[in-house]
Each structure stands twice: as C-alpha cells, then as structure tokens.
C-alpha cells in the first residue's frame, strides 16, 4: 500500500514540479524498516531531482529544507535522510555542473551560517 502511495506522489510530482513539500514528506518512508524495495524512489531523488531539476527548482528545494530545519517541523532523523537522499546529491550535481551560485546565493549562505551553524 505504501509503495502505491509513493508511486502516486511521484506521478503527481512529475506533473507539478513546483510542489516541493511532497519531496520531503515521501522521505519518511526511509525511516521505517520494510522489505519493500524503494530503489525507484532513491533513483527519483538522485536522477530526476538531483540531475533533472533546474537550478531555480533546486534552489526552491534547498530553501524549503532550510525552513524545515529552522522551524524544527521534522524530527532530526527525517532531516538527516533529507540531507542524504535529496539535498547532498542535488548540491553535488550543481557543483559539478557549475550551477553552484545559481542554487546557493548569498542569502542562503547567510541563513546557513547564522541559523544552522549556531
């Protein structure tokens, strides 16, 4: 049942890439031990989001993550999974393709330094 639900969310995201909240909501599936293979979801995060999203969309995802982090809306383990599965692969691709300043601007750096590294 959860696998079908995740596939429905993926279908929705493929048609409306402006929705970033669902990207983070689906990550909760990795917090539960299960025998279901969610490799397709990992590949979605790595390939379709990390490599396929435009720098502007990546920036929107990063800003959303920073808001979640600051507001403590998700538990720490959820944020760790978000970093591992979504944020870091996305940033790696951005840095490797000279998109770093299109994704991370001075306001994001300021937020990271002032709010996250406190």
Number of helices: 7
Regions with pLDDT < 50 over 5+ consecutive residues?
none
Distance from first to last alpha carbon: 41 Å
Taking the sheet with the most strands, its summary is: none
Mean pLDDT: 92
How many beta-strand segments?
A: 0
Order of helices and strands: HHHHHHH
- Tell me the radius of gyration: 14 Å
Instruction: Please bin the fraction of helical residues.
Output: over 70%
Beta percentage is under 5%
Helix vs. strand class: mainly alpha
Task: Estimate the global geometry from the Cα principal axes.
Answer: globular
Explain what this protein looks like in three dimensions.
This protein has 118 residues and is mainly alpha-helical. The protein is 71% helix and 0% strand. The chain has seven helices and no strands. It has helices at 2-15, 21-26, 39-49, 55-71, 76-96, 100-103, 106-116. Helix 3 (39-49) crosses helix 5 (76-96) and helix 4 packs antiparallel against helix 5. It starts with a helix and ends with a helix. The model has no long low-confidence stretch (mean pLDDT 92).
